[in-house]
Amino acid sequence: MNKEVVIGIDIGGTFTKLGITDRSGNLYYENVIETDKYEDPNTFVDAVHEMVHEVLKKHEDDFTIKGVGIGAPNANYYTGNIEFAPNLIWKGVIPFSNIFSNKFDLPVALTNDANAAAIGEMVFGAAQNMKNFLMITLGTGLGSGLVVNGDLVYGHDGFAGELGHVTVVENGRKCGCGKRGCLETYVSATGIKRTMFELMATETDDSPLRNVSFNQLEAKDITDAANNGDILAQKAYDRTGTMLGSALANTVAHISPQAIFLFGGLAKAGKWIFEPTKISMEQHLLEIFRGKIKVLSSALMDKNIAVLGAAALMWKELS
Amino acid sequence: MNKEVVIGIDIGGTFTKLGITDRSGNLYYENVIETDKYEDPNTFVDAVHEMVHEVLKKHEDDFTIKGVGIGAPNANYYTGNIEFAPNLIWKGVIPFSNIFSNKFDLPVALTNDANAAAIGEMVFGAAQNMKNFLMITLGTGLGSGLVVNGDLVYGHDGFAGELGHVTVVENGRKCGCGKRGCLETYVSATGIKRTMFELMATETDDSPLRNVSFNQLEAKDITDAANNGDILAQKAYDRTGTMLGSALANTVAHISPQAIFLFGGLAKAGKWIFEPTKISMEQHLLEIFRGKIKVLSSALMDKNIAVLGAAALMWKELS
Asked: Which residue among A10, A241, B234, B298 is least packed, with the fewest CB closer than 10 Å?
């Protein structure tokens, strides 16, 4: 039986994941390719094409490929370009959609990774009946995808949804973007590490993490420590959630979403992040919004949301 | 010749303005009625009906009324209710659309006043070709209407766009909403008055406004003083614009609008408010947004934007 499928591709700084999926989100094939091995984006696309082609040769009668959906950092949905992505080896403006569609001779849709995650949640996850929601991805940085009236918010230039860079502390922590006090300098894997080190300086509680250097410490170590009763690690999560909750309250004042989904490493810390986030959000909400907005784990937390989301983007374009 | 028209109604705490307008925004009739004279919303609607009816009797052959558009504080587009409006004498939840449609036997659409202003700008003003923009109304408080992908953002519950209540200073000024540090406690007619009094306390510059009591001072006095070279008044505008600009940068990170329109008393202060707002916004913007977002005066500044906006809402529903 021949099945209509799309290719979903999640491009990260180090690894690129890809999958072949049907309309229901069933993954028939998954693979990984090293992004930073390819200095030229064209040879990268050639390698992806070859990889997919080999699979397809074996399953010629099984699949009809309808298109390619791509999630990538600093990707612009309108132009199909990846623009000035600090975490990719390809600098400047890369006409990524064009390169892919020329090589694959298929429709291609491109958006940033957090938007792809939001679409994944909408098409395959817990937001299937939601018209207004927010996706927050907590990785090295903080990404976000806003859905309003059932559509992704791209803004006039394709760059909307940069919640990682709202200013939460005037003259606060230095951000990779050049500004100071951006949300992601507090709320992200890197952000909680910085908070942990701030707490080591200001507090006196003992902690095994005091034996770990800044460069060696990972967010997961803080989660493990919190689970083991480490007071400093718990305080670090408390501060992180408090900061996130107050920022989310401001986002609610903008778009009043039905739910806010958290995805990524920090979200896996469970109650350590969710509880202070909810408390702080409720405290900062205008009364009319209180008790209404759900803060949830992504339903695709343990699945390949980025690949599924990229595929979902293409399915959305096709429908 | 018979012309299709709608009734636009702008309900304020003290006065309600109404007008009859065609699809092009020509106003054929305008009037004002005292809102707070009517303790019962039903008798208020009766009075509005009588007022309109008298005009229509004289112009029976000229006009066909197609509907009624209403802008009101705390109005919910989805439910047609006015809910817990602190500035209206009608308390609790008022099924305003129902009362109007029963009395007028016409389609009725209701939204909050700032949303109505945004629709007015979109249908009759400078946002006619814009799909993504922001309207900020600077009155006693700060209202906002967000337009994304060509549609007003109502959110899941009809209450989106409450930018006056984003928290800009943690534990800052007490707000009428019960919270502290809301944007409108700094950026509004009341906000700049509070800033002026803060400056009188912290600075030593002389100012004729030092002879005016808090209750007597009006925002317009501060504008006049700034125009007359009053250093304190100019500083008050500078702080107000700086605060507004940083808040707008956060909104840009959410929805990346093509333009931001300012409307209302403070916006009439011209350069005193626009210059610091633009400077501060640019400073707080992520690089990809810099130099792209226009901050403009509403093109309907000297027109009855609220009535036109309410009418435009109805025209939008009808089309």
From this structure: B234
Q: Which CATH architecture has domain B130-297?
A: 2-Layer Sandwich (3.30)
State which residues of chain B have pLDDT below 50. Answer: none
ipTM over cut 0.90: yes
Asked if residue A1 has pLDDT above 70, the reply is: no
Chain B environment of A151 (Cβ under 8 Å): 149
Using CA atoms in the order B55, B56, B61, B66, what is the torsion angle rounded to 10 degrees? 130
pLDDT of residue B153: 97
Q: Could you tell me the pLDDT band of residue A58, with boundaries at 50, 70 and 90?
A: confident
| Cross-chain CB nearest to B256 (options A160, A246, A284) | A160
Work out the mean pLDDT of chain B and round it to a whole number: 94
Which residue of chain A comes nearest to B171, CA vs CA? A284
Q: Measured between alpha carbons, how far is B176 from B174 in angstroms, rounded to an integer?
A: 7
**Residues A287-317: pLDDT tens digits?**
999 999 999 999 988 888 889 999 999 999 9
The fold adopted by the segment(s) A3-120+303-318 is: Nucleotidyltransferase; domain 5 (3.30.420)
Q: Which stretches of chain B sit within 8 Å of chain A by CB?
A: 83-84, 130-133, 146, 148-149, 151, 153-163, 165-167, 170, 177-179, 246, 249-251, 253-258, 284, 286-289, 292
Same fold, B3-120+303-318 and B130-297: yes
Q: Do A153 and B177 touch (CB under 8 A)?
A: no
Name chain A contacts of B161, Cβ cutoff 8 Å.
Answer: 253-254, 256
Nearest to B177 among A177, A178, A286 (CB): A286
The pTM assigned to this predicted structure is 0.93
Q: What would be the CATH architecture of the domain defined by A131-297?
A: 2-Layer Sandwich (3.30)
Chain A residues with CB under 8 Å of B254 CB are: 146, 153, 160-161, 163, 166, 251, 254-255
B146 vs chain A: nearest CA distance in angstroms?
8
Q: What are the domain boundaries of chain B? A: 3-120+303-318, 130-297
Contact A258, A130 (CB under 8 A): yes
Measured between CA atoms, how close is B87 to chain A, in angstroms? Answer: 15
Residue tagged 């640019």 (tokens): B282
Structure confidence at residue B172 (pLDDT): 97
CA distance A29 to A66: 15
